[in-house]
Write the structure tokens for this entry.
Amino acid sequence: MKNAKRFLLTVLAAGFAVVTVRAQAYLQDPRYGDTPEERQQNVLTLNYFNDAYAAKNYDAAATHLKTLLEKAPRASQNLYINGANIYKTKISRATSVEEKNRLVDTLMNIYDLRVEYYGDNAKRGKPYILGIKAQDYLAYRPTDREKIYQLFKDAIEAGGENTDPDIINGYFHTLTEDYQQDMVETDILLNEYDRLAALFDTNPNLEKEEGKKVLDALLISSGAANCENLEKLFKPQYAENPNDLELTTKIVGLLSRNNCNSDFQLEVTENYYRLNPSPETALALATVFEERKDYEKSLHYLREAMDKEEDVVAKSNYLARAASALLGSEQYRQAAELAKEAIGMNAENGVAYYVLAQAYAAGSSSACSDFARQTVFWLVVDNLNTANRLIQEAEYTEDINKLIGTYRAYFPTAEEAFFRTLNNGDGYTVNCGWINGRTTVRTR
């Protein structure tokens, strides 16, 4: 029994010693006040604050918070975190505009004091605090646009290239909303986009890349990023730095997303290909020049795409596209040669058969004459039928079926075939200049 009492006394003494040491530590910590007496009282008030906050007695907690912010503002960063939560709750319960405004002012003051006393915190310092201050001000005073802009700018200036992407995009989203209400000029919006985009481009990482996508999407959705405005914004920059791949990539991306088709867009895209060549970009350029009926340049970029492509199926597709470009420039023999090369690489390339058929049909009048020319259309229809079987896309099928009907009308008559001792279904080898191949006799 005596041993038990002695053990209990020992435990109590040890506990008392720990409490005493902790109390002495508080009394010596300048965060809690200037004198031991002030520190003791402020620690007691801090305990009252924590108890009231835990019990969700926010009126009592707010009273203790006010005392602590006046007498021991460095006591704990949780004072400001929990204090902000208290006033957000009180704001949501406000019963008048006047009360709400007063509470919002207090919330903003809490953020200012937090910046003053904990702004140097490594993870949750000034940039972070100013960011949430701006977001809260936007939430509680959405009509005070100039102040909202300034608070976001302050946060971004404090954070620089390390600013949270959500803060950057929150600010730009506000600008785009106001732009759509004719409250922000186009030049201001585009210049701010350019300034903010540069923050994402410095020391890029996954978070920044995702944030940049959001920023770009906001610009596009704003309606300000039409082709004319983008050219006005970027043309001077591009002229000064044509070899800047980063800038060129950004310009090409924005112009492409807006489906721009200007000379400036084409110039920048060609330069982008020069700086960063790839089969995909070469094919895109080939498409643009094909649409402009500049078949020589289209063919040039298609050949570039082919040279850089290693996949056989993709290479076959590029050859078929090149054959189509030659067809458009009325180089029928060369078109047929490339189409056959594409088929040799991939016998399932329906587009190549489609192009080959049209090259034969268009080139037949100059390659041969009379009955020999009529036999060419057997090959033409053969290739169209193969294309129809392989492609099976409504966009092509409708056109192919029309062409088959048209070209069957050029088949020899039964009388002409009989005169040459040919019967329907007989095998036949076409020899018509550069057009040749094995087919079957048919009459119209």
Remarks:
- The longest strand covers residues 427-432.
- Strands lie at 427-432, 435-440.
